[in-house]
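User: C-alpha cells for this one?
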Amino acid sequence: MARSARTPGKAAPAATPTHALPSYLDPAHLGPWGIYLQQVDRVTPYLGPLARWVETLKRPKRALIVDVPIELDNGTIAHFEGYRVQHNTSRGPGKGGVRFHQDVTLSEVMALSAWMSVKNAAVNVPYGGAKGGVRVDPRTLSRGELERMTRRYTSEIGIIIGPTKDIPAPDVNTNEKVMAWMMDTYSMNEGQTATGVVTGKPIALGGSLGRREATGRGVFTVGTEAAAQIGLKIEGARVAVQGFGNVGGIAARLFAEAGALVVAVQDHTGGIARDKGLDVPRLLEHVAQTGGVAGFKGSDTLKPGEFWGCKCDILIPAALEGQITRDNAGRIKARMVIEGANGPTTPEADDILQDKGVLVVPDVIANAGGVTVSYFEWVQDFSSFFWSEDEINQRLVRIMKEAFTGIWQVAQEHKVSLRTATFIVACRRILLARDLRGLYP
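Assistant:
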C-alpha cells in the first residue's frame, strides 16, 4: 500500500471563510469534531476547484439540542440532554444512527454526523449525514423508563426528522425495539404510519432481512478485499477484535468461518485470548448469556492494555471512537487494522501506524455495510416490496467491493492512505452536489 503524503505537492488554494469559526467548531477544541476537521484539512489539497466549497464540510447544516424530561418509575422527574445533528444534505436526506450513552457530547454527535456524510458518499448511496444521541446510561433505566425516554426524544426531534428529511437508525445501546418505539411515536404524531422514518426496525414493521448483520458483513467483505491487495491470506490469519456486539461479533464469526483464527477479544467486561483460536460460536453464546466476554471457559484473561500488543495479522476495533491513540498505536503488531467502530483511530495514531507499515481500512468504508442495507430497507419501505436475505447480501457485497476497488485505485493514484482516498472520493461527491445545486437564495 502506498504511503500517505501528509504535505501534497500542489495544493489547491484553501477557501477563505468570511468570518471566524464559532468556538464550538474550532479545531483547537479537543474532541471527535476536532479529529474530523483534521481529516478534512488533509484531504483539501486533493479537491481541486471544489475546494472553494470546503467550508461546507466544516459546518453542520443543522444542530438541535433538546431537553428530554420523563417521569421515572418512582414518580420523580428526570431530565436528559438529547441531540440530532444534520451535517450535510446536499446528496439526499440525512442518515445516521441514534446512540444512548452516558458520554454523548455535541462534539461527538457532530463528528459522527460528518463521518456519516463521508460514509454515505463513499458507497454512493443517496443520503447526507446525520447522527443523534441522548446522554444517558440506559442500564440505569427500567424498560418503561427507556421507552418513555425514547418516545419523548423522538417527539422533541420530530420537527427535523422524516422519511424524506432525516432517517435515524440503531447505534450504540439502541436496537430494533428502540427503532420500533421511534417509528410508532413519529407515526402517531403525524397521524399516519411512516415505516420509512427509521431503519433497523423489526422485520414485522418493515425492517430488512440482513440488516442486523450488515455492518459486520461489510467489515468482513472490505477486509478480505484489502487483505488480497497486500497478499494476506484469510485462512490461518490471526484476528483480534475489540467489541463483540453486532459489529465485532458478526465480523469475528465470518472471519472464523473463512478459516481465520480469532485469537483475542476485548469488550467492556475485559479481554480474553487463546493462541490456537477462540471458539467463536460458543463465545457468542457466552456473551448473549452473560453480557460480555469475561469468564469465557478455555481462554486466558488479558491484563489491562495487553490486548493492543497481542500477536495478530488483523485488528478490528469495533467498540467506540478514540481507542487507538499515540499511546498504544506503537504496540500494535497487526499487518492490517479494519475499523468496525466510528472514529476509533486518532490522526496521531494514524501516522504512527502508517510509519509502521500497517494498512488501515478506515471506518468510512469498512463499516458502511450497515447504512448500505439501511438504504435497502428504506427503498423497500417506500415500494412495499421486500427482497430475500440472499438478494440483500449479494447487493451489499457488490456495492462494498465496488466502493473499495474505486477507493484503492485513488489511493494508488495519489499515493495516499485509504482514509485520505476515501475522503477524496466522498468529499468530491458531496461538494460536487453542493456546487451543482448552488446557493439559495
